[in-house]
Design goal:
Elements (H helix, E strand, L loop, with lengths): L11 H15 L12 E5 L11 H19 L3 E5 L1 E2 L3 H15 L3 H30 L10 E2 L3 H16 L3 E11 L4 E3 L4 E16 L6 E6 L10 E4 L13 E4 L4 E7 L11 E4 L5 H10 L25 H15 L2 E14 L7 E10 L2 H12 L4 E3 L3 H10 L4 E2 L1 E2 L9 E4 L5 E3 L15 E3 L3 E2 L1 H5 L2 H4 L8 H6 L2 E7 L3 H16 L4 E7 L2 E2 L16 H8 L1 H9 L8 E2 L3 H24 L14 H22 L3 H29 L6 H19 L4 H10 L22 H23 L9 E7 L2 H6 L1 H7 L2 E7 L9 E5 L3 E6 L6 H27 L1 H6 L2 H29 L1
Parallel strand pairs: 1-2, 3-4, 9-11, 15-23, 22-23, 24-25, 26-27
Antiparallel strand pairs: 5-6, 5-14, 7-8, 7-13, 9-12, 10-11, 14-16, 17-21, 18-19, 18-20, 26-29, 28-29
The structure holds one RNA strand of 77 nucleotides.
RNA sequence: GGGUGUGUAGCUCAGGUGGUUAGAGCGUUACGUUGACAUCGUAAAGGUCGCAAGUUCGAGUCUUGCCACACCCACCA
């Protein structure tokens, strides 16, 4: 046993710097197309280049890193491909904001100038997030890093667009789309978030041209009435039956519009009549199509009123609304105002209210794409974890609308569509057409718009590997193995990758999707700037280290629910890492002088065999949990194994053998310590890569490989059931004795006593007597077959296979021991009564399986035995 | 309105196919500081398993209903 010179604590900063460079320089993150290995591929969910690392990234990256590190150690050719997303709308907004501060608008710069600035911006900030990802210890293959606006990926995007257009899967149409007046672009359905808002329901009376009848409508948006082209009622509604087909006049604009009947109108809501504004409401737009109604735009792309009524022209919506309500009041057409809670669509990027607007946009036709995408999940070619999310996925896919993919932005993949400047004919192709249009004109102009950023990320799993080129990477690493990402982008990204991959490559993009929840604060609230409750992972790393951050994120994690995160978890993490450090220091000292070659398996002691049994169990179960993406459970099990089984139990049991003179099984103890310690470092490495690598490098066994590329441990077939049971008994015995000592308030705490043991397992107790001496504070352990000669004044600790008697000497009084024994007795009596009641129940005895009944009978016998032993002690003491 | 979850100790979470003393860590309390670690040790207290019915010899576990919370979806203007 040596004293090892080691730092008192693990110092994360230095180790992180050292090991990350080491791994990276040695090329351990790099994946090779090794024909003798099986590929295992994970594609990073590419973070935005606008991004600063937040706790959500830290979680996703940690989970991916855990999986890829395990797979690498298991001998797969493990590729974790990193990269970033240009994030068109988010990035463009940031750049516009930056320009605004300079007093320049994007129009001032023009498209070219703006894009130059955007690329400058990307160069400056795009690398930031990558640097931060590295701080977490992420073992990505950085040589394969991609960006969604790379040349290769852009080619893929262009090819997909052109091919799909030629197949009729992409079309241009004038339709109602969600428009964000703030970002000044259309957005897809998925990009709209609905939020509850307190509003009003305004009741407006529309009169007949001759005032002989009237109809009242209810609306939350009175300003859109300027564009009303009908009033709809339910055909079954008798109140309005006589009016159907007649007309009413829209106040203010004095437009005569028809009253139409359609079953979509809810009779119970509002007045039962609804005004139809096809230009600004999805429902109304559909009705307008159906009934051939005129579409009259009221609001423009800036969210300002069009000059339908001159005095409102150019006003913003809320101003115009107030004016129109006032005017209706004056006209006497406003009949009622009710407060009303309703959902309002907001842009997921800027959170401003979205305006449905009619405009010409490009769409992806979803129907034919959705079907196979549903099929591959149904037939398990893709497995979604947790499984229940499959239902969410089906529901979305089955009800999917066409995907609006054009964006009125400059930062992104420009749509490869060209229009004849004379007749507007469309040409879709790789470059500006050189031919003459059928109308005789030969000047063309490219579409100004770019594609939805998700259009390019939908191709990520294969475009990053070189598709559409038939690259070696693509054929080796694709389809990828697992996608690990947040549940929030199931529709944005996961679903779209699935149908895109099937369409473009004919293969699934990945075989498994594991989705985790959102990281919330300790109270379960979303982390937000306004609440200032965010946790900055970079601060955590500088204060506690990346390992501690990773530990704290995985601790208590499950994939079903959101994660409640608080810095308290770091306390546990820090303590654990410290314990690991110190136990390693001890083990290194214990094995320093050991010649493992002289280790004799025959000389393994019961506690060694117990430990080996436990080790085999933990290797199996941790591996299984990780394969199931049960990161939290895997870590929990490792924690318990390491802290309780290894440190508290095994190391403590083995200390006498290591330190006492003249012990013959020192080598076997040392070897077992080494074996378990090494396995612990291996199993913990995916979770805590830095501290484990650091410790492994200090492990004095002359290994030549760093931990990161060492083989993942596998359980072997060693089985020692008898030794295992015996040690379990010993543990129970020790705990009971300690318990009694505390209860009897033995002073001083460490005072040793004689322990008499009566047992049927004399040989075993004799073997472990040194352990008993140390852990049960025995001065000496006297083993005898019967109770003869044991002092009457002794504390008794009864168990089924062995009983211990601790002589009082002058430490405790008889009365206290009698009281304690009476408590024990009462406990046994209660147990016996319970079991007897059950066995007296004929229904139980006749209907329960025989093993269960026998089990209870055995239990009854055991309790009776313990009770009589207790009674015997009481009788003796009372004498 | 529909869907999907969640609800177990003060807190964070475990609890295959129902089996009778419901577990762990943190926190709390008491005692302690012993050969790696006070970022430690020994022990204790702490739970009518959201509520109510039902199925069963037996329910934290299965069924139904309800309550609370969360998330997702949806065209009640």
């Amino acid at each position: 046993m040596q004293q090892i010179e080691m730092e008192k604590y693990f110092e994360p900063a230095a180790a992180e710097e050292k090991w990350y460079h080491f791994w990276s320089d040695k090329g351990y993150f790099k994946a090779h197309r090794d024909p003798n290995k099986t590929p295992y591929t994970i594609m990073i969910p590419p973070p935005n280049i606008t991004g600063k690392l937040h706790i959500g990234h830290a979680l996703t990256m940690t989970l991916q890193d855990i999986t890829i590190r395990m797979k690498r150690m298991q001998g797969y050719s493990a590729l974790w491909l990193p990269g970033t997303d240009h994030a068109s709308i988010a990035t463009e907004a940031k750049i516009v904001e930056m320009l605004r501060k300079e007093g320049v608008s994007k129009e001032d710069l023009g498209r070219e100038g703006f894009l130059r600035r955007a690329w400058d911006w990307k160069k400056e900030y795009g690398g930031t997030i990558i640097k931060q990802l590295k701080k977490l210890g992420s073992s990505c293959d950085w040589d394969r890093e991609r960006f969604t606006l790379d040349e290769g990926l852009s080619n893929a995007v262009q090819k997909v667009f052109i091919d799909m257009y030629n197949e009729g899967l992409i079309y241009r149409g004038e339709r109602l789309v969600n428009w964000c007046p703030c970002c000044h672009t259309s957005i897809s359905d998925a990009e709209v978030e609905y939020e509850e808002e307190q509003g009003h329901l305004w009741y407006i009376r529309y009169d007949a041209p001759d005032k002989s009848y009237s109809v009242e409508v209810a609306t939350t948006r009175p300003e859109t009435m300027l564009g009303d082209t009908a009033v709809a009622v339910n055909p079954k509604d008798e109140r309005f039956a006589h009016m159907i087909g007649k007309t009413v006049v829209v106040p203010i604009v004095n437009r005569e519009i028809p009253i139409i009947a359609d079953p979509f109108v809810e009779m119970e809501f509002g007045t039962g009549a609804v005004k139809i504004t096809p230009a600004h409401d999805f429902n109304d737009f559909a009705a307008g199509k159906k009934f051939g109604l005129e579409i009259i735009k009221v609001i423009d792309e800036d969210g300002k009123m069009l000059p339908l009524v001159p005095k409102y022209a150019g006003q913003d919506i809320l101003t115009a609304r107030a004016g129109i309500v006032e005017e209706l009041k004056e006209l006497g057409n406003l009949t009622k105002i009710e407060p009303y809670m309703h959902k309002v669509g907001k842009c997921y990027r800027c959170h401003n209210t979205v305006e449905p607007l009619v405009s010409k946009q490009w769409f992806v036709k979803m129907e034919t794409l959705a079907k196979p995408a549903i099929e591959v999940v149904k037939n398990k070619e893709i497995k979604i974890i947790p499984e229940r999310d499959e239902k969410v996925y089906y529901h979305w896919m089955e009800n999917i609308q066409d995907w609006c993919v054009s964006r009125q932005l400059w930062w992104g993949h420009r749509i490869p569509a060209y229009y004849c400047t004379k007749c507007g004919a469309i040409h879709v192709g790789e470059s500006m057409p050189t031919h003459t249009c059928s109308c005789g004109n030969n000047t063309w102009v490219q579409d100004d718009d770019t594609l939805d950023t998700w259009f390019s990320s939908a191709l990520w799993p294969f475009s990053t590997l070189g598709w559409p080129e038939k690259t070696e990477d693509l054929s080796y690493f694709y389809p990828t193995s697992t996608l690990i990402t947040g549940r929030d982008i199931l529709f944005f990204w996961v679903a779209r990758m699935i149908f895109s991959a099937l369409k473009q490559t004919g293969k699934v993009p990945f075989k498994t999707v594991a989705m985790h929840g959102l990281v919330r604060d300790a109270l379960g609230r979303k982390m937000s700037k306004s609440l200032n409750n965010g946790v900055d992972p970079l601060e955590v790393i500088s204060e506690f280290g990346a390992d501690a951050l990773r530990f704290s994120l995985v601790q208590g994690l499950n994939l079903e629910t959101d994660i409640k995160y608080s810095k308290d978890k770091l306390t546990v993490a820090k303590a654990f890492i410290n314990k690991l450090w110190n136990s390693a220091k001890f083990v290194f000292g214990a094995i320093a002088d050991t010649d493992f070659k002289s280790c004799d398996p025959q000389k393994l002691q019961p506690e060694d065999k117990w430990m080996i049994t436990k080790l085999n169990e933990i290797i199996t179960s941790v591996t299984a949990e990780l394969e199931k993406f049960e990161y939290g459970l895997a870590l929990q099990k490792l924690y318990d194994f390491f802290w309780n089984d290894f440190c508290s139990t095994y190391i403590e049991m083995v200390k006498p053998r290591l330190m006492d003179e003249g012990v013959e099984t020192k080598t076997e103890a040392a070897h077992t310590l080494y074996r378990v310690m090494k396995a612990v470092l291996l199993l913990l490495n995916p979770f805590l890569p830095f501290v484990t690598e650091e410790l492994y490098s200090k492990l004095p066994d002359g290994h030549d490989k760093p931990l990161i590329i060492t083989d993942w441990p596998t359980a072997n077939a060693e089985k020692y059931p008898e030794d295992f049971e015996n040690i379990e008994l010993l543990k129970y015995f020790i705990t009971s004795i300690r318990n009694v000592r505390v209860n009897m308030n033995i002073q001083p705490n460490r005072k040793t006593t004689l322990i008499f043991v009566t047992t049927s397992k004399g040989d075993f107790i004799r073997t472990v007597a040194p352990i008993l001496k140390k852990l049960a504070f025995a001065k000496d352990v006297i083993i005898q077959p019967t109770k003869d000669g044991i002092p009457v004044n002794a504390i008794a600790v009864e168990s089924l296979a062995a009983s211990a008697y601790i002589p009082f000497e002058d430490l405790v009084d008889v009365a206290a021991e009698i009281e304690r024994l009476n408590t024990e007795k009462a406990k046994y009596q209660e147990m016996i009564a319970r079991v007897e009641r059950q066995l007296a129940n004929e229904q139980f005895v006749s209907k329960a399986p025989k093993e269960k009944v026998d089990e209870q009978r055995q239990k009854l016998a055991d309790y009776q035995k313990l009770l009589s032993a207790t009674d015997e002690r009481l009788a003796m003491l009372k004498k």
